Amino acid sequence: MDPGRRVSTGEPRVRRTARILVLDEGGSVLLMKTHWGQRTLPARWLTPGGGIDPGEDERAAAVRELFEETGLTLTDAAALGDPVAFRRIALPPAEEYQVREATYFLLRTPRFELSDADWTDSEKDDIVGVRWFALDELEAPGEDFDPEGVRSVLTEALRAGRSQEGLR
C-alpha cells in the first residue's frame, strides 16, 4: 500500500506532500503548470514539490523534489529551515486521493535555469509549463493556481521573513 495513503472506514485517502516556494532575488516565485492526475480539470500552476516517500520526512522530501524537478541541489537539507505553511485541501472527486496535505518550505536563491534532466516520464507528460511569476502576476485573472492558494501561502511565508543559504 502507498504509505502516503491512509485507507480506513470513513477516512479519506490522503497524499502527503512537501512543496517549495522558490523565490529569486527580485521576489519572483517559480511555478510549474501541471495537469491534474485524471485530467478532468484545466492544468494549474503550483510550486515545485511532490509526494513524501517512505522513510522521508518533509524536509528530505522537499530537498529531493527540488532537485528532481528543478535541478537545484541544496548542500544541506537544514538550509530549508522550518516549514512556513501547511495546507490540507480536498481534491476533486475524480482524483486518486481525496485529500492533499502540503507542507511548504521557503527558499530564496538567485534566478536559475531549470533543468528537466531528472524528470520522470510521468513528469515529462504532466508538466506543461515552467515560469517565474512576479508577485503581482499572481493576482492576474486567467491563470489557474493550485487550490491550496499559492498567493496566500506565499504571503504567509513572506510574513515569516525566512531566508536560507546553502546552495551549491
Automatic annotation (TrEMBL):
Its EC number(s): 3.6.1.-
InterPro entries in UniProt: Nudix_hydrolase, NUDIX_hydrolase-like_dom_sf, NUDIX_hydrolase_CS, NUDIX_hydrolase_dom
Cofactor: Mg(2+)
Gene Ontology MF annotations: hydrolase activity
Keywords on record: Hydrolase
Source taxon at top rank: Bacteria
Pfam short name (any one): NUDIX
Domain Nudix hydrolase per the UniProt entry, residue ranges: 13-158
Family that this chain belongs to: Belongs to the Nudix hydrolase family.
Protein name in the entry: RNA pyrophosphohydrolase
